[in-house]
């Protein structure tokens, strides 16, 4: 049947036309189109990767920041604690030292007062003694101007000595 | 010829619902005894001139080669619409049912029996009145000449027929379309306009046909062929569905064209075939040695049946679609009433819609199977011998 028999002319022209079409389309259509598509796909892939990387970097960065912040916080806490301890100790020391000093001062003052008092008392005693001696001398001088009296007194003193 | 011209013209009008006109024509044709088979066969076959409407056809170049006497070149208008071996062109060629023969010494065809009634004088007379010759012919002239095949020699016919011209039109369309796509990319590589519409199809052929079947590594070499064959078949299928000029030619429903496409796929497959491919054809690994020669014969036939199936599938699908639509239209003329249009036209619309789907589907199938065959030929069988089964598809 004619419908099922290829005819040479049509086969010839179809071959020529198709191969020509293939060559022309490959040169002027498929190559530039596929290149554009491929380039765009590469660009998109690159952009996605870049974004991914940037996001990862951001995440890393913020994690780092967080860590630094935490460390700083901890450090601050430690420093504050230490400072407090040091301060407390200083205060305690100062208090203790002040107490000791105070006690010492008080003791010194007391001792000084005692000393002064003793000195004053000694002086008063010495002075009183001296006064008494002088008074006694004068009294004696006056009393014992009469030799009789001197005799009787001496005799009295001797008596006393004997009693002792 | 005129009869068919009329019917095709009427088809066009009927499709557009101009029932009044078709009533008139149908009435006329009814008297000339409408032959649906002849009308359909005429429509789906190739022709030497391109019928546009009514009596108007575009003459196409006829290129004939007769071994020994060289090339002859003239326009198809020299046959004056004759298709019944009545008009001599260049003094020696006769056209009979779309085939050009070399006339015998009496200037007519030899049917191997009694002398045809119509002689040279009639033919020459017809030549003068040109386009009107069919009506002038006595009815029995048709009847006599219409039987059997002539014994006359045929020149090698390299004419630019209607199908060749249609292929040129589709080529031009494809070049314009995809040239425009190639130019539609902006600096970011984004397609605008027509490119935005056609690029997904190109990417579809690449990602759904070429890469899965041929493989990521080797598809690049074959992609231009697959793209070309896909869009060539598709656009010609679609043009075939357009019922008026410059569509309506049955390009992809013609065995010559599907033959060429199938042969190209076969050549690519055969040339690309690597050692593994031939190994699996001639000395199938993994089967008993006794069976290998038998398998070799089967596989060798298989390499030919695959492209043969490609050729037949496309041809039969598209030709069948055309025949079906034409048969539905022919009902109007068979029943001799325009009211048949109320039945035929909805069916024709339905079938045409279906054919739109078939047009894309057949382009896809042809391309997919071509990719599959190429993929088989270039596949690397890196894991031994269990791949034999895949060559049987």
The total beta strand count of chain A reads 0
Number of strands of chain B: 7
Tally of individual helices of chain A: 2
C-alpha Rg of chain A (nearest Å): 64 Å
Estimated helix fraction of chain A: over 70%
Helix residue percentage of chain B: 55-70%
> What number of structural domains do the residues of chain B give?
2
Q: Which chain pair has the greatest contact? A: A-B, 35 and 50 residues
Report the structural category of chain A.
mainly alpha
Secondary-structure content class of chain B: mainly alpha
* Beta fraction of chain A: under 5%
Distance between the termini of chain A: 187 Å
The pLDDT mean of chain B sits at 81
In short:
The complex is a heterodimer of chains A (164) and B (393). Chain A is 93% helix and 0% strand. Chain A is an all-alpha fold.
Topology overview:
The complex is a heterodimer of chains A (164) and B (393).
Chain A: H1 8-143, H2 147-163
Chain B: H1 2-15, H2 19-31, H3 36-44, E1 49-53, E2 56-59, E3 61-66, E4 70-75, E5 93-96, E6 99-102, H4 120-129, H5 133-136, H6 139-145, E7 156-157, H7 162-183, H8 194-214, H9 219-241, H10 255-272, H11 275-282, H12 292-334, H13 341-378
Antiparallel strand pairs in B: 1-2, 3-4, 3-7, 5-6
């Amino acid at each position: 049947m004619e419908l099922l028999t290829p005819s040479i002319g049509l086969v010839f022209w179809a071959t020529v036309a198709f191969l020509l079409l293939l060559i022309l389309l490959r040169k002027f259509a498929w190559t530039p189109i596929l290149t554009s598509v491929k380039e765009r796909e590469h660009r998109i892939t690159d952009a996605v990767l870049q974004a991914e990387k940037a996001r990862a970097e951001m995440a890393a960065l913020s994690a780092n920041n967080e860590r630094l912040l935490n460390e700083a916080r901890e450090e601050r806490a430690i420093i504050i604690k230490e400072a407090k301890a040091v301060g407390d100790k200083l205060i305690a020391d100062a208090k203790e030292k002040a107490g000791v000093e105070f006690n010492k001062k008080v003791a010194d003052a007391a001792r000084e007062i005692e000393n002064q008092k003793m000195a004053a008392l000694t002086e008063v005693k010495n002075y009183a003694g001296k006064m008494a001696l002088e008074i006694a001398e004068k009294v004696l001088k006056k009393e014992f101007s009469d030799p009789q009296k001197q005799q009787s007194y001496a005799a009295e003193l001797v008596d006393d000595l004997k009693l002792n | 010829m005129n009869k068919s011209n009329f019917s095709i013209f009427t088809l066009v009008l009927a499709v557009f619902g101009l029932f009044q006109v078709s009533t008139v024509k149908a009435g006329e044709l009814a008297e000339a005894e409408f032959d649906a088979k002849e009308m359909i066969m005429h429509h789906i076959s190739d022709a030497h001139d391109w019928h546009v409407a009514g009596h108007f056809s575009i003459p196409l170049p006829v290129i004939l080669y007769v071994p020994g006497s060289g090339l002859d070149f003239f326009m198809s208008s020299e046959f004056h619409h004759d298709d019944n071996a009545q008009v001599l062109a260049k003094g020696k060629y006769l056209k009979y049912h779309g085939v050009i023969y070399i006339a015998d010494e009496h200037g007519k065809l030899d049917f191997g029996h009694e002398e045809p009634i119509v002689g040279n004088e009639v033919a020459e007379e017809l030549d003068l009145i040109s386009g009107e010759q069919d009506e002038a012919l006595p009815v029995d002239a048709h009847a006599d000449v219409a039987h059997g095949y002539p014994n006359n020699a045929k020149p090698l016919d390299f004419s630019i027929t209607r199908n060749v011209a249609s292929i040129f039109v589709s080529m031009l369309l494809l070049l314009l379309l995809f040239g425009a796509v190639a130019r539609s990319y902006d600096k970011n590589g984004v397609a605008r306009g027509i490119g935005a519409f056609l690029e997904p199809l190109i990417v579809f052929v690449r990602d759904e046909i070429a890469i899965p079947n041929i493989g990521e590594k080797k598809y690049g070499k074959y992609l231009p062929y697959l793209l070309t064959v896909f869009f060539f078949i598709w656009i010609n299928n679609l043009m075939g569905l357009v019922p008026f000029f410059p569509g309506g030619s049955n390009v992809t429903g013609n065995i010559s064209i599907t033959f060429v496409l199938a042969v190209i796929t076969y050549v690519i497959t055969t040339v690309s075939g690597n050692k593994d491919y031939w190994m699996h054809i001639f000395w199938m690994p993994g089967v008993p040695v006794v069976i290998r020669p038998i398998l070799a014969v089967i596989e060798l036939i298989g390499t030919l049946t695959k492209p043969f199936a490609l050729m037949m599938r496309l041809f039969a699908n598209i030709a069948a679609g055309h025949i079906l639509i034409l048969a539905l239209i022919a009902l109007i003329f068979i029943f001799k009433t325009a009211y048949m249009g109320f039945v035929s036209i909805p069916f024709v619309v339905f079938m045409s819609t279906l054919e739109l789907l078939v047009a894309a589907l057949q382009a896809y199938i042809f391309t997919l199977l071509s990719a599959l065959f190429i993929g088989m030929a270039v596949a690397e069988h890196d894991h031994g011998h269990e791949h034999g089964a895949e060559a049987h598809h």
